[in-house]
Structures are given as structure tokens and as C-alpha cells.
């Protein structure tokens, strides 16, 4: 091996080692522990999704035009104001649960055997973020069908230097910031579940130190005239 070749290999080794030292070990839970924190939830129809602040509702009460309207909305406190029924905590309820509560309140004092329907006419838009080693990081709209795979696809997929086994998701759970680590390769192969991404989540795709060092080396190699050692 020539001295120039040895120098080149030493430079590459130094780049790899420096890349590995950029961060400590990733201590976020992975595998089954990650799935417990970030469970997979089957895509549900709108009727099965819980109500959120800002959702617009159509409430219809048979034979009661003064109570029937398409303009009801879950307010900033998570409540819905309905004449005769009063203020009802709605955020976190499913439409069917809100209908049951309305039926109970109206039937208790005002209307005999009320026939009530609750329909979500407009969902309040909520978002998640994708950062790190993706081609187009940004903020995207969360829907009931958004999973980790589709979230990263919206960011135009990982970059060439992304570490596919270092895909992290951060979420506020019970008022605390929680995180977990997922292996994108396992999810793509069907060997691991594809967790649902919720509004407010942040997805961070990690960097592969080896791939990054190799890319840096190749970018620097022409300046040192070192390409010949790989022929």
C-alpha cells in the first residue's frame, strides 16, 4: 500500500470515528417497549374518532327545529353549548357518546323520547412535524390514517445518509414528553407494526455516522486527488 493510500484510509477511518462520536447511545425505548408507548390503531371512520376542539357539528333533534343546527362547534374549552341541554364537555367523546348524553339531558326534563343525531361536518386541522434526515422536512396535516411510514413519505422519504433504525417519535403523553425509537426497515418488511402518528407528534430521522462519513470523504476526495486508490 502506498503512503498516499494509507493516508486516505486513515482519513476515512478518522471521519467514521468522528461521526460515531457525535452523539452518545440512543436510550429511547424500542421494539415492544416503543409499541406500548406508541400503539398501532386501525384507521377508523370519522364516526369513531373522538371530538376535538374546533370541530364543527351538525346536531339534529327530530321535531325540534330550534335545537337543530349545522353551526355547533366544540369551543376552546372542549364544550358544546346546546339550548335546553346546556354546556356539554364534548372533546374526547365520540359522536355517539355525545348523542347519548344529549338524549339523556333532553329526555330528563324537556322532551319525551328525543331522537338525536350528531354529525361531524368539519374536522379541526391538526399537524405533526418531520425533521432530520429526510428530503423535505416540514409540518404536515395529521389524519386518522397517518402512520410512521406515511408521515415520512410526506417528507419525501429519508436521505441517503439516514439511519433507518434510528427513527424517533416524540409525543406528549399525560403532560410529559415521551419518545420511542423505531426501525423503518423492519416496518417496511412487515416485521414490526407501523405506529399511528397523532397531531402534535414530532418525527426525527437519525443520521448514519458511517454513511455520513463516507459521503464526506467522497466529497473531499477530489480535492486530495485520492480517487485512484479505489480503482
TrEMBL record:
Q: Which InterPro entries match?
A: Poly_export (IPR049712), Poly_export_N (IPR003715), Soluble_ligand-bd (IPR019554)
GO MF annotation, one: polysaccharide transmembrane transporter activity
Alphabetical UniProt keywords: Signal
> What are the residue boundaries of the Polysaccharide export protein N-terminal domain, all occurrences included?
44-121
Q: Which residues form the Soluble ligand binding domain?
A: 128-174
Under PANTHER family, the record lists: POLYSACCHARIDE EXPORT PROTEIN GFCE-RELATED
UniProt name for this protein: Polysaccharide export outer membrane protein
**Which organism is this protein's natural source?**
Novosphingobium kunmingense
Amino acid at each position: 500500500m502506498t503512503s498516499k493510500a494509507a493516508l486516505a484510509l486513515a482519513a476515512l477511518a478518522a471521519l467514521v470515528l468522528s461521526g460515531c462520536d457525535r452523539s452518545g447511545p440512543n436510550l429511547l425505548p424500542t421494539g415492544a417497549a416503543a409499541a406500548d408507548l406508541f400503539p398501532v390503531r386501525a384507521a377508523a371512520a370519522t364516526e369513531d374518532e373522538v371530538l376535538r376542539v374546533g370541530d364543527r357539528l351538525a346536531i339534529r333533534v327530530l321535531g325540534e327545529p330550534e335545537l337543530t343546527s349545522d353551526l355547533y362547534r366544540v369551543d376552546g374549552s372542549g364544550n358544546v353549548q346546546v339550548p335546553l341541554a346546556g354546556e356539554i364537555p364534548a372533546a374526547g367523546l365520540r359522536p355517539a357518546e355525545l348523542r347519548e348524553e344529549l338524549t339523556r339531558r333532553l329526555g330528563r326534563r324537556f322532551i319525551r323520547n328525543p331522537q338525536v343525531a350528531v354529525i361531524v361536518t368539519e374536522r379541526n386541522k391538526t399537524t405533526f412535524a418531520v425533521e432530520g434526515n429526510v428530503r423535505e422536512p416540514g409540518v404536515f396535516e395529521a389524519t386518522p390514517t397517518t402512520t410512521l411510514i406515511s408521515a415520512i413519505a410526506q417528507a419525501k422519504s429519508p436521505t441517503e445518509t439516514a439511519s433507518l433504525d434510528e427513527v424517533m417519535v416524540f409525543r406528549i403523553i399525560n403532560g410529559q414528553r415521551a419518545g420511542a425509537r423505531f426501525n423503518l426497515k423492519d416496518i417496511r418488511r412487515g416485521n414490526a407494526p407501523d405506529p399511528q402518528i397523532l397531531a402534535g407528534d414530532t418525527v426525527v430521522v437519525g443520521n448514519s455516522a458511517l454513511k455520513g462519513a463516507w459521503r464526506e470523504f467522497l466529497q473531499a476526495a477530489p480535492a486530495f486527488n485520492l480517487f485512484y486508490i479505489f480503482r
